[in-house]
Amino acid sequence: MSGAPWYFDCDTGIDDALTLGLLVAEGADVKGIGSVSGNLAAAGGARNTLDLLAVMGRTDVPVAVGAHDPIDGVFGGGAAFVHGENGIGGVELPRVGEPVAESAAEMLVRLAHEHEGALRVLAVGPLTNLALALELEPRLPSLVADVVIMGGAAAVPGNVTAVAEANIINDPIAAQAVFAAEWPVTMVGLDVTMEARFEEAHRQRLEAGGESAKALAAMLGVYFDFYTAILGRPSCALHDPLAAAIALGTLEPTLAPLVPIEVDTTDGPGRGQTIVDRRDRYIGYPARPGLRHRAVLEIPEGFGDALLASLLRLP
């Protein structure tokens, strides 16, 4: 389904930048991109997205600024310690273009109507824009083909708290609204994204590529610095690009059977946990009608090599 029209929702830090490169390299028909506060503020994410699109030769893709604050709170300031102060590892890109006037939520609703039944949604940041779009257009789930998100964890620890992954805990109310809506969601969580890696050899090969590849390689220095303490060597996890590859169909993962997924929105220690109900694994557990979500549980080896090959095709 990579030939389908896409709406891409992101908080353009470093792995979002790699994801954008993958979408461009694979020729995804991206009709619009919305930014959301996560790795950095939504306005800064939109700026990074526009400038990266220009480097990659895709100034035709409109970018909308999305929600600055989560549904029930205030933006916490981002993750400069992971992505650098400007979200892209301190790399300075030429400033090209400006965001469109509509909000990201308005863009999503408009594109869903323009491409009714065909639009696919890839969301790799907090899900605030999607939740706001659901408020604007309650019929949105019937207009969209499917949603693929990077976020959550089915059977592994979180990376912000013991149970919560960053994108989900940044706006649990929005995440719960997205999972509660009647559209199919594929959750690409920490179960697999922590296993998808770029190594130093990948970064060095990227550095020898074209202008886009060189810019991405330069961003990876800060990202590698952060992950070295976690992974034990200069390398990084490929959270968002993995979700994009699965959405595009360039990587065939192992999916859990259709499952209910909910998000803990309480103020206790479980806040932000994605609760993936896997009780169907037991023999004789009653069938449950109306299930529509899937969680990715396993991926084949070699995703870093495949991502590198795609990114080296960029201009």
TrEMBL record:
A Pfam family reported for this protein in Swiss-Prot or TrEMBL: IU_nuc_hydro
Keyword Cytoplasm: no
Every Inosine/uridine-preferring nucleoside hydrolase domain range: 7-281
Gene Ontology MF annotations: hydrolase activity
Superkingdom of the organism of origin: Bacteria
CDD domains: nuc_hydro_CaPnhB
Keywords tagged on the record: Glycosidase, Hydrolase
InterPro entries: Inosine/uridine_hydrolase_dom, IUNH, Ribo_hydro-like
Alphabetized PANTHER family for the sequence: INOSINE-URIDINE PREFERRING NUCLEOSIDE HYDROLASE, URIDINE NUCLEOSIDASE
Protein name: Nucleoside hydrolase
